[in-house]
Amino acid sequence: MSANAGPDWVVVAGAGGFIGGHLVKSLLRDGHRVRAVDIKPLRDWHQRHDRAENVSLDLSLREACDHALAGSVDVYNLAADMGGMGFIENNKALCMLSVLINTQLLIAAKKHRIRRFLFASSACVYNGEHQSAADLRPLRESDAYPAMPEDGYGWEKLFSERMCLHFQSDFGISVRIPRFHNVYGPYGTWDGGREKAPAAICRKVAQAKLDGRRELEIWGDGRQTRSFMYIDDCIDGVHRLMESSFSEPINLGSSELVSINQLVDLVETIAGMKLERRYLLDAPLGVRGRNSDNTLINARLGWEPNTSLASGLEPTYRWITEQMQQRALR
């Protein structure tokens, strides 16, 4: 690694993941010198960009974080062990161990006098009492307290938010804390158990079309609600937040609320087919309803995610279908 390079490196932790890969691409496009870091071997990264300095490191270790942040000015921490609801509900300990990554990165950020530190938080930090019905009001940033987040993953995110804020007040590190709401798009995880609802539904519909089947399996009764943010909006929001002076937790998500049944309707329309739905009522479901209140981000950044779900699903479905076809040829 170029530890003695000039002081203009931007570090993306979790660069081998879905959002991280898109973020590295955008930073390179904007002329930044990017050090992309992930624990996965380079061959397993979702995207790998040759113009970045691509490094495989275990950022739960202090020496690795010290190495990764040497000579850098900004840090984007997207690194975490996570996935869709099936993974989160069955791997609570693994999800909570991600606290080591943020802890060691903050210690290294203090040592190297990092200018700005972005921690990717999650809507899973919100109090479950505000998410017990499909039609409850959108979540405001203040709804994280009194604390009752998603067990495991949500607690880790909420604790790490507090750590970032205390490092800011005690050591002067300028932090940014977006709370992501269900990000989807091309180059995301689409199978294997870590995929989220949009990718899972796209895969299931595409598989039914490829196999000539007429049945679709849905987790839950299909009436649970969510909002889904397209990856381009996510990256745009991250940049806008990083360039702002706002340092409190803030929602970064679409306010377009849909049920899972409506999500299926949209994917079926893109695929040009209708399927019989089989509901698995004992599958992992998470909260009953969740949506993003974008009042604060509109007020502070004059912006909010605006890609419609229908528009974002089309390239997502097309990309997932291509991956399935390529796998079938191997």
CATH class of the largest domain: Alpha Beta
How does the helix and strand content classify structurally? alpha/beta
Task: Determine the N-to-C terminus distance.
Answer: 35 Å
CATH superfamily of the largest domain, by name, is NAD(P)-binding Rossmann-like Domain
Uncertain parts: 1-7
Number of domains: 2
Helix count, DSSP H or I runs of 4 or more residues: 11
Query: What fraction of the residues are assigned to beta strands by DSSP?
Result: 15-25%
The CATH topology of the largest domain comes to Rossmann fold
**Tally of DSSP β-strands:** 14
Describe the protein.
By secondary structure, the protein is an alpha/beta fold. The protein has two domains: 9-182 and 230-252, NAD(P)-binding Rossmann-like Domain (Rossmann fold); 184-227 and 256-293 and 307-329, Alpha-Beta Complex (UDP-galactose 4-epimerase, domain 1). It has helices at residues 18-29, 62-69, 85-90, 92-96, 99-111, 153-171, 197-211, 231-243, 260-271, 295-301, 309-329; strands spanning 9-13, 33-38, 53-56, 72-77, 116-119, 121-122, 174-180, 183-184, 215-219, 225-227, 229-230, 249-252, 257-259, 276-280. Helix 5 runs parallel beside helix 6 (153-171) and helix 7 packs across helix 11 (309-329). Mean pLDDT is 94; it is low at 1-7.
Task: For this entry, give a set of tags.
alpha/beta, single chain, 330 residues, 18% strand, Rossmann fold, UDP-galactose 4-epimerase, domain 1, globular, 2 domains, 14 strands, 8-stranded parallel β-sheet
